[in-house]
């Protein structure tokens, strides 16, 4: 394959942010919340050092540019992640400081959806492939956008 042939690549970048939250559903009683969420339902909340990783899509639009040698400028990607993830989430109480979580339980699943939606608004169309959020080393959520469940 000649150096000028189209080469495809996926680009990944991670950020780490700290935030606190309380797992609590307004649809459940206090007793039901405590039973469902246990110590994570602590009225004063609890915190995590989340790690969010995004992976770009493998699409024709993500060909390695023969001139720059890049799929996407990492400086631009860093700025998008700063705006979509760090500014709204880092050192925040998710339930009190982030409007999105006023009506949505701040599970890691929903944090991943929040990040996906924010990044989708900033990135060029078709770039984002998946968002991976590590709540802990053992608890990880992967979100790839709205996917229909197989019947």
From TrEMBL:
Cofactor(s) this protein requires: Zn(2+)
One term under GO cellular component: mitochondrion
Any one biological process term the GO annotation gives: tetrahydrobiopterin biosynthetic process
EC number annotated for this UniProt entry: 4.2.3.12
Alphabetically ordered keywords of this record: Lyase, Metal-binding, Tetrahydrobiopterin biosynthesis, Zinc
Domain of life: Eukaryota
Cross-referenced InterPro entries: 6-PTP_synth/QueD, 6-PTP_synth/QueD_sf, PTPS_Cys_AS, PTPS_His_AS
Keyword Metal-binding part of the UniProt annotation: yes
Pfam families linked to this entry: PTPS
Gene Ontology terms for molecular function: 6-pyruvoyltetrahydropterin synthase activity; metal ion binding
Gene3D superfamilies recorded: 6-pyruvoyl tetrahydropterin synthase/QueD
Known pathway: Cofactor biosynthesis; tetrahydrobiopterin biosynthesis; tetrahydrobiopterin from 7,8-dihydroneopterin triphosphate: step 1/3
Enzyme class: lyase
Protein family membership: Belongs to the PTPS family.
Reported function: Involved in the biosynthesis of tetrahydrobiopterin, an essential cofactor of aromatic amino acid hydroxylases. Catalyzes the transformation of 7,8-dihydroneopterin triphosphate into 6-pyruvoyl tetrahydropterin.
Record-given protein name: 6-pyruvoyl tetrahydrobiopterin synthase
Organism of provenance: Onychorhynchus coronatus (Royal flycatcher)
